[in-house]
Amino acid sequence: MNQSMSMIRTQTPSPLSHPPPPPSLVLPQAMCTSQRIYCCFGQMEARVNSNMSKPSLVAKFSSGWTETQSLFLKQTVNNYSLPLGALLTSKTQDVSTMAFNGDEKIGVLLLNLGGPETLDDVQPFLFNLFADPDIIRLPRLFRFLQKPLAQLISVLRAPKSKEGYASIGGGSPLRQITDAQAEELRKALCEKNVPAKVYVGMRYWHPFTEEAIEQIKRDGISKLVVLPLYPQFSISTSGSSLRLLESIFREDEYLVNMQHTVIPSWYQREGYIKAMADLIEKELRNFGNPDKVMIFFSAHGVPLAYVEEAGDPYKAEMEECVDLIMEELEKRGITNAYTLAYQSRVGPVEWLKPYTDDTIIELGQKGVKNLLAVPISFVSEHIETLEEIDVEYKELALKSGIEKWGRVPALGCEPTFISDLADAVIESLPYVGAMAVSNLEARQSLVPLGSVEELLAAYDSQRRELPPLVTVWEWGWTKSAETWNGRAAMLAVLVLLVLEVTTGEGFLHQWGVLPLFH
Ligand SMILES: C=CC1=C(C)c2cc3[nH]c(cc4nc(cc5[nH]c(cc1n2)c(C)c5CCC(=O)O)C(CCC(=O)O)=C4C)c(C)c3C=C
Ligand SMILES: [Fe+2]
User: Fold this and answer.
1) Whole-number Å distance between alpha carbons of 174 and 122
2) Distance between Cα 150 and ligand 2 center (Å)
3) Beta bridge partners of residue 87, listed in sequence order
4) Which ligand gives the minimal distance to the CA of 345?
5) Where are the domains of the chain?
6) What's the whole-model pTM score?
7) pLDDT of 496
């Protein structure tokens, strides 16, 4: 464990005054046995017994504490070895004035994928997406081909994508919905006495993350909470956005000094789980016999290698998320059969299984008649809910023998959900600028709160090569021959691809590799 990971930050012992001083004492965790931690408002003092593995609350003296506050303190101390004093402030008082100095400006950066707003945007949007090494990661030898390949694939895919976007109104609704979510989150934070500015940073289209960061600098934000709008962490989504942020932060003096924290995933939060269960419960009522309906969770897929080779926690988080939603439904007396499958695969490599389309056909064959689709990787309506699920999968289901099909809407600006996001932000504030949770066992989710750098170090740190979505081959006997043979092979592949696309014939069509995308 490195030194910074084994530290805890505590409130300096101070008189019981108001407001508290900022956290200033940093102690190696190993030295914190029976560390006394004073909280300097509300007349309270907490003593924490801590060792390398897990701190625990051993004593608490307070006046005027509610049951919830005591429980919160206990859970917090037992789960995290981080700034206790600040955590106490966040639950008891106005964070903007208590946890931080009055001149601190809090910002929340919502990260999302972005989508083309017009049909003309589709090809350049796809180029940005495929030029991202977290989406198509070529072997080192072929990295120089990332952009030409992105150009080729985006041109190849654009007609099919355009058709999809045309059928949902000529563009993606993602920007509008994310802007509305940002505004609702701002209001919810304000109502909870945490005035903050909320920014939207998209990965592949406007408003780009770079644009949001420029605004954050102009606004003089001093403490930033980074909140990817993906409930589950994946290298291909939150990971890619965080990698971009890391490179932006690294090159900018203002940003290097701006304190931040990241909420990497939040699929396990009670408010989110309850909001999902509410939507499912409501939609089940539209069926004649709700208890006979198969609940069909359809998650966005990722290539299998992300999970098996790069350590992407996405699959594990997804499965846990589905279990939590089903547990919540069970508490409400809803014990329907359910299943989880993965949609939207792209290219010929293996993705997470079972695939949504195969599963729909199988369910039909098994005699399932009522199916309720639940999109689970997204919190906004977009092409993959409005077109892929509502049109393509519905059609497939009806063809496969399903008689009644329903679909749960995406969360959008659902109040329980927005309020829970606001709580997630508030609970993360004490971690802004602090070290990440060092105790693996104490993590509440598979990916812990932390800084951009730490999160990237925890997952996919070596950025191992992943099988590209378009498979290329290598041969040769010496290092240099391998390099040049590889490059020649890649060029040959490119030429053949161009010929295939222009003539519509060739070996890839014969092998069923092209058309590349479904
Ligand atoms: C090529 C590989 C892709 C991976 C891996 C991938 C993962 C992934 N994506 C989302 C969420 C969204 N994807 C969206 C669009 C989109 N994604 C891909 C490819 C991969 N996604 C493509 C080619 C596209 C463009 C649309 C299309 O042509 O099909 C969107 C935006 C949709 C919109 O309305 O504009 C979202 C959102 C997740 C959650 C995920 C992995 C977990
Ligand atoms: Fe995608």
Assistant:
1) 13
2) 15
3) none
4) 1
5) 4-98, 270-407, 486-518
6) 0.75
7) 65
